């Protein structure tokens, strides 16, 4: 049985998991859907009983579709059409390629980390906040709006208010999956303009922090790392200044771990990277969840066996 790893050609994080799979003798086929239909070939037959048979073939090797035990959906690119096609045919070709390849893979009766459709649903921050609160996690008071009046009223009730992007920043000419980072920003009522009406905005009440925690979940394994920031920029959003961060593995409170596992089940996720603020009085406040978040640097900085936990889940035969 083979583990299928879907990711772009350069992905050091996926390499950590592949290393663990190879170490245990588990066969792996790594490929990028962006190579389809160019150098990646698919032959899939669907019988009248719904059975899917056939092969997925790269330039180096091929795998029987029936032998795929699990799929690790990391950071793949989207199918790319033949460069000779004009714009109209290119868009159609890429749409059909995605529907065909992704449709076949999604139909396979195997384990996923994570299914793309579950990632897409779980990425929506308003849904995350509601789901997190329902499972018992503390969440910040939040507002999603496209009216400046509502934003100003919300700011008036908050001692400090922040703005957070829900999808990342704009990157002209690039696909959404390549959107640049847009960091958390403290905003005052005076800074709010009618431009708020141009799109949806997520505003939250600022939560005072003693430190932050990145929680990485792989199956039933919960890895928590305390993040201490040593610069003003990093204290607002640690992603903006990695050079001034320090890390320390910590044990989450039992009730937090229990709620995190319940949240993962609620969102149909096997893997997730969750961010928390821990307040000066020790309260853990959920900020957000990335269903396909980066974790490699956390493992390298702390030695936590995250890749091993992901590989263990990929080797499991049950769904």
From TrEMBL:
Domain ATP-grasp positions: 129-315
SUPFAM superfamilies: Glutathione synthetase ATP-binding domain-like (SSF56059)
Keyword RNA-binding: no
Coiled coil ranges: none
Keywords: ATP-binding, Nucleotide-binding
A matching Pfam family: ATPgraspMvdD
Family annotation (NCBIfam families): GRASP_SAV_5884
The protein's name in its UniProt record: ATP-grasp ribosomal peptide maturase
UniProt organism field: Nocardiopsis tropica
Name of the coding gene: tgmB
């Amino acid at each position: 049985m083979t583990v299928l790893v879907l990711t772009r050609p350069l992905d050091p994080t996926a390499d950590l998991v592949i290393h663990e799979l190879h170490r245990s003798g588990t066969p792996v086929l790594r490929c990028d859907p962006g190579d389809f239909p160019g150098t990646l070939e698919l032959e899939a037959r669907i019988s009248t009983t719904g059975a899917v048979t056939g092969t997925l073939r790269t330039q180096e090797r091929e795998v029987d579709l029936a032998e795929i035990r699990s799929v690790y959906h990391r950071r793949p690119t989207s199918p790319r059409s033949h460069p000779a096609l004009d714009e109209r045919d290119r868009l159609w070709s890429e749409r059909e390629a995605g529907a065909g390849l992704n449709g076949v893979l999604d139909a396979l009766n195997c384990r996923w980390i994570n299914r793309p459709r579950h990632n897409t649903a779980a990425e929506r921050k308003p849904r995350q906040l509601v789901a997190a609160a329902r499972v018992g996690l503390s969440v910040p008071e939040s507002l999603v709006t496209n009216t400046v009046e509502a934003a100003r009223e919300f700011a008036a009730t908050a001692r400090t208010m922040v703005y957070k992007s829900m999808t990342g920043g704009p990157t002209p000419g690039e696909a959404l999956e390549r959107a640049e980072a847009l960091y958390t920003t403290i905003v005052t009522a005076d800074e709010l303009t009618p431009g708020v009406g141009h799109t949806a905005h997520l505003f939250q009440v600022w939560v005072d922090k003693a430190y932050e925690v990145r929680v990485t979940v792989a199956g039933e394994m919960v890895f928590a790392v305390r993040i201490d920031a040593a610069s003003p920029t990093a204290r607002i959003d640690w992603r903006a200044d990695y050079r001034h961060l320090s890390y320390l593995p910590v044990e989450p409170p039992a009730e937090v771990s229990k709620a995190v596992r319940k949240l993962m089940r609620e969102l149909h996720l096997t893997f997730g990277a969750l961010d928390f603020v821990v307040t000066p009085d020790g309260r853990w406040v959920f900020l957000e969840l990335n269903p396909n978040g980066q974790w490699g640097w956390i493992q390298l900085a702390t030695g936590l066996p995250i890749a091993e936990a992901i590989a263990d889940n990929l080797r499991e035969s049950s769904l």
